[in-house]
Each structure stands twice: as C-alpha cells, then as structure tokens.
Amino acid sequence: MKLENPWKQNPWFESVAVAQRRARKRLPAPVYGALVAGSERGQTIDDNEAAFRELGFAPHVAGQQAERSMATTVLDQEISLPVLISPTGVQAVHPGGEVAVARAAATRGTIMGLSNFASKSVEEVTATGAATFFQMYWTGDRDVVVQRMQRAHAAGAVGLIATLDWSFSMGRDWGSPEIPEKVDLKTMVRMAPKVVTKPRWLYEFGRSGQLPDLTAPNLAPQGADGKLGSAPTFFMAYYEWMTTPPPSWEDVAWMREQWAQISGTPFVLKGVCRVDDALRARDAGVSGLSVSNHGGNNLDGTPAAIRMVKPIADAVGHDLDVVMDGGIRRGSDVVKAVALGARAVMIGRAYLWGLAANGQAGVENVLDVLRGGIDSALMGLGVSSVDELTPDHVLVPAGFHRALGADATEVAGP
Ligand SMILES: Cc1cc2nc3c(=O)[nH]c(=O)nc-3n(C[C@H](O)[C@H](O)[C@H](O)COP(=O)(O)O)c2cc1C
To answer: N or C: which end of the chain has fewer CB within 10 A?
Structure first.
C-alpha cells in the first residue's frame, strides 16, 4: 500500500490571495517583483484593488434563482464567463508561459490575450485552440506594424488589442527588480543567491530543459524572403518601442483599418480612461475598448479602473463592447464591474499568480475561483444571468465614479 503524506500541500488554492502567496514563495525575488510592478508611489495600483472594497451588495434572504448562467458574448466570441485573459509579458514565471495560459483559457472557455512581449510565439499559442487576441503596442514603423498584424492573422488570431497607454513612467519608490539582458549560465551564477532558495521554480525550468527566455518572438523581424529572423531580446524590443513617436488618433484609425482589411475581426483599444477618449475611439471605429490604467503600471495618479467604468459605459456602451481591467481578484469584483456597465473584465496578475503557483492548472484554478465567486454573487443578488446585472445591484458610495474628460461636448483633435 502506498502511504500518502497527509501534510502535503494541496496544489489547489481557494482564492487569488492564496495563489499570490504561493507565487511569492516560489518565484525568485526579481521575477515576483516584475509581476507586482506598479509605478512611482503606487497610488494607482493600490486604488485599483481598494476601490472594489468601497463597493457593496444588498443580498436577498430567499427567492434566489436555482439556475444561474454566466455565459455571454463579447467581441464576437461566446465565452463561458465574463473574464478574459489580459495580455502580459509572462517572462520567466513558468516554462509553460503563455502556452499554459492559453490552454487554461481554452479549457475554461474564454479569450486569450497574447502580449507583444510574450515569451511564446503567436503560432504556438493559437495552436492550443484558444480564441487568441493578439496585442500590439505602437512600436516600429507602419510596414513593421502591418507585417506583425499579418503574421498574427495568419497564425489564427481572432482579434487585435492595441495597447497605447504607456508613458514610460517607470521609477518606483520601492525599487525595480533587476531584469537581466538574457538568462545564460553567467547570469544564473550571478543571481544565484536569489534563485537557489527557490528550488521548485528551478526544478520546473530544469524539468523543461530550458532557461527562462527573455526574448520577444512575436517581434522577430521578417526578411525580404518572408522568413522570420531571430527574436529580439526584451531590451531591444523595449528600445524600439521607446524610440517610436507616440501614436495620434489618425494612427489609431489607420491601425483599425489595417486590421479590418487583414482580418475583419474585432479591434480593441486598451487603456482608455477618459470619456472624451472613448468617444474618439468610437469615432475611429473600434469594436471594443478596455477601461484600464495598465494595472497601475502607467501614469501614477490615474484613478482605479473600476471608478472610470460607468461614465465610459454610459457614453459608448451602446455602440461598442466596453471591458475593463485592473484590480480584479475575486468573482464579486467581476460582478461589480459588469453591473456598472462592463461586458466583461480582463485579468492580469490574478492568472500570473496562478501560473506561478501551479502552471496551467493554476490558471484554471484562478478562473474556477472567479467562476465560483461570480455564481455566489449572482445567487445572493437573486439574478439568473450576468446579463441581468444593472448598476442598482451595487452599493456605490457618493463620489465613487470618475468621469474624466466628460465635459467635452464635442470631440476635439488630439
Ligand atoms: C507583469 C505585467 C506585464 C504586463 N504586460 C502587458 C503587456 O505586455 N501588454 C499589455 O497590453 N498589458 C500588459 N500588462 C497590463 C495587463 O494587461 C492588465 O492591464 C493589468 O495587469 C490589469 O490589472 P491586474 O493585474 O490588476 O488584473 C501587464 C501587466 C503586468 C502586471
């Protein structure tokens, strides 16, 4: 008879907070620090989560619905719960990387957002069968942008996310983690004190037979013969991005038009904070937008994403799909966001903690935790579907919403 160790840690976790604690324990400090991220004094990253705590519910005691559904349609995709995977560069978290995340998205019936800076190629990710939205920054010249779109479309991407909210505001009061240029043996030896105390993380990479890959394969240049060159390092890619002049609203309209011609699938503008920008995005013809402050990693002092959802949804929610991201850590957060007008939310750190804690199963675990929380909230509120949620289902304190740029009566130029 095989004796099971009764004290062995159950790999399943009951909340995103537990996944985060496991990620912190398992990952080398610089890798964990890169996931926490944030910028400047951390005001926005803190508010993203804190704002959800200001919102409440008024549950019923009886008369709840026995059958509850959280399936919905967003950006032309039917999804089994209103939670999408937001694109993140998940370098060095787990050898499965974005492929593991995409498999989890596919098994749980939702959309996978794949970052420009991802460690796995768009071809490997779409091969999982996940409905993949390819994310692009405004980086490189127009020919390069088109070439990257064509590659994503050829790989089978079913949507494009343009993330344009980046102001290179990087200094952090708590200090930034070191990111090596590339992870070779020399770097491993130098960083060894931070790594040797994390045996499980090392073990996972050792088992996969590879060192963490700090390159961006989706930004590989294409030669005249159509063949892809070698992937740039993370830093080369970042340099290209930093030195590209920022996009105008004409560039947004141009990007949308190019994607429409290449693919005809939805085009999402990620990083919208202001009502006037939401109106401009609508006029540029986008199919959807994400109300987002880049998880508190962009301009510090931007309000929590959840504070900006209702004013933007009220302005453009009838014309396009409004989603939001930032601070989602439990199912009830999802319900609050949907009730205030989002069609769905996107998650970033929550699934990164899950990936670090337990690979693909950890990401599935996070989606299951959110699913369970959404279901409980729907039950308490006495509704049978996420589509029935309205702002009246949430207790909102006075002064909660932030209608940024709402005074503009007409849309002026950039
Ligand atoms: C480590 C990290 C890397 C990220 N990389 C990208 C990226 O490459 N592209 C992008 O559009 N957003 C990126 N984001 C932002 C996320 O897509 C998302 O907006 C944010 O994480 C949502 O906040 P949350 O982490 O509180 O859920 C990143 C976020 C984190 C934490």
So the answer is: N
pLDDT band at 308 (very low <50, low <70, confident <90, very high): very high
Tokens of 216: 């961006």
Nearest-atom index, ligand 1, CA of 49: 26
Per-residue pLDDT averaged across 208-216, rounded? 80
Where are the extended beta strands (E) located within 186-261? none
Catalytic residues: 294
Query: What's the confidence (pLDDT) of residue 10?
Result: 85
Measured from the CA of 117, which atom of ligand 1 is nearest? 8
Task: Copy the structure tokens of residue 324.
Answer: 């939001």
Task: State the Cα–Cα distance between residues 333 and 56, nearest whole angstrom.
Answer: 10
Q: Which residue from 297, 307, 363 has its CB within 8 A of the most atoms of ligand 1, so it is best to mutate?
A: 297
Q: What is the mean pLDDT of residues 80-99?
A: 92
Q: Where are the beta strands (DSSP E) in 246-398?
A: 267-272, 288-292, 321-325, 344-347
Would the pLDDT of 325 be above 90?
A: yes
Q: Do residues 266 and 76 make contact, with C-beta atoms less than 8 angstroms apart?
A: yes
Ligand 1 centroid, distance to 6 Cα (angstroms): 38
Give Cβ neighbours of residue 264 (< 8 Å, ≥ 6 apart).
Answer: none
Tokens of 253: 């309209």
What the block records as the tokens of 37 is: 């991220």
Span 179-195, pLDDT tens digits: 777 767 677 667 777 77
Q: Which atom of ligand 1 is nearest to the CA of 45?
A: 26
Please count the other Cβ atoms lying within 10 Å of the Cβ belonging to residue 102.
Answer: 29
How confident is the model over 243-261, as pLDDT tens digits? 999 999 999 999 999 999 9
Candidate from 48, 53, 88, 292 with most ligand 1 atoms within 8 A of CB, to mutate = 88
Question: What average pLDDT does the chain have?
Answer: 93
Cβ atoms of residues 386 and 82 within 8 Å: yes
Between the CA of 110 and the centroid of ligand 1 the distance, in Å, is 17
